[in-house]
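Possible regression after last week's pipeline update?

I re-ran a chain I had predicted before the update to compare outputs. Posting the input and the new output here so someone can diff against the archived version. Not blocking, just want to make sure nothing changed silently.
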Amino acid sequence: MQIGSTFSSHRRADVTRWLAFHLALGLSGTRLAALTFVLVLFFARLGHRDLYSSHEARAAQNAQRMLDTSDWGLPVLFDGRADMQKPPAYYWMVAALGWLNGGSVTEWVARFPAALAGLFCVLLVYGFLRADGRPTAAMIAALVLATANHFTGITRTARLDVPLALAVTMSLLAFYRGCVTATPFRWHLLSAVSAGFAVLLKGPVALALIGPAAVAWLLVERRYSQARLPWMSALLGPCVVVGVALPWFLWANAATDGEFLRIFFWHHNVARFTGSSPLLASHPWWYYAPRFAFDVLPWTPVLLSLVVWSVRSGHWRRDPAFRFGSITTVVMVAVLSAAKFKRADYLLPAFPFVAIALGCAAEAWLNSRTLPRSVRVARFAFGAFLGGAVVGWVIMTCVIEPAEQAKEEKRRFAEVIRAHAPTPTVILQFRMESHLLSYHLGMPVHTFVEWGELNELLAAPGPHFVVMPPEYVFATGEIVTRRKLVEIVRLEAYTAGKPLRPLVFLRTAD
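New output (post-update):
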């Protein structure tokens, strides 16, 4: 019995040394290749298509107007309306890059800060685990994060969600380091500054993601380690967050005579959480479970298998980084599930922690194998999943995105409008709102909904140009009595696909 046990232990030691040698050799040889792979995923063809969503066009408008007016305080759209849906941090980044681009915000410029934030997220996850002497977990976690389909897609989109994920990840990872090292203050200072920047990106929801996750992890971790939050950090951390974020919010509220507090805090935060606004859809509490499973593909089956293995083997008790990633993910999903209004993009701050948990569990599973063949099979499967992610990326960028873009195309329509009404002629946008069309038209544009205002504007001397949905064209001829409008062109004549929201361009007849 003792001889068999000794043989088994020697065999396990030999396999462990074999595994460590080959993995170290492979990782050192593939580090540059992995970085190149991530760069291609995030940056290749980044500006190959027009701006797509309302979020992208709003970001481009806000940043371009900052450059054109030199007013970087409050985000303002091309039609002169203050954009109070989000704080300005993402627009500042786009505007800064546009300044470096000669004062022009292009599709590539609008998306680059998000892509760069995605790259930094991957590097941050890798560095966090690599600093603990875990190169295998670091490489797996980094590649899993980079190829999770929704993370990859939104990283290539001019939205603030991935920069928010970076700020939240930096804040929580620095908080973790501060609680487990002998020099906590500098880590907790970094955590607080990152949290303040996250608030400037998204508002108080950033703290709702960071605070509960940090507290929940500390409460659980007290059972397994000596992780502690010094009282000095607990006192000064919130003060730093307030010092970074609060001045701009106070200024914005004063500059808008209190409208910012009503629109941003009440409508876009309280009403979204409670579902009290009739303008916002409500979703069931379980919405994020299937959504999350789909968005993490192709890694969902691997994640579920490794979570089950970690629980059954007791690995979660031995690995603090795995516990941290798992607890943070669960708490974030729970907090977001409590809100009535839900979007898939809101889950993105949880993705780096899913990757950390998966990387840790995968490394532990590999180290527990006694047969080299099972390790080779696992590495082959990992490569196959990466290959599947690449195939999905190609299909998305070369097939799906162009097909969806065709339904939202506005550039050629805007060029035709400006050919009839060159700048600085005002384009009237009646009972419609298309941030993408406004971006391509450029200033000045005027957006409004009242029939009386249309009548008054058209009564002024000179030619006038109006864009409206086709269902209002007949009613305009009946209601507007002072001037008549004649149709020039329709949007569908200048799109490769059937537009989701048809539009008509008209001008005064005389």
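Follow-up from reviewer: compared with the archived run. The chain has two domains: 2-405, 411-508. Marking as no regression found.
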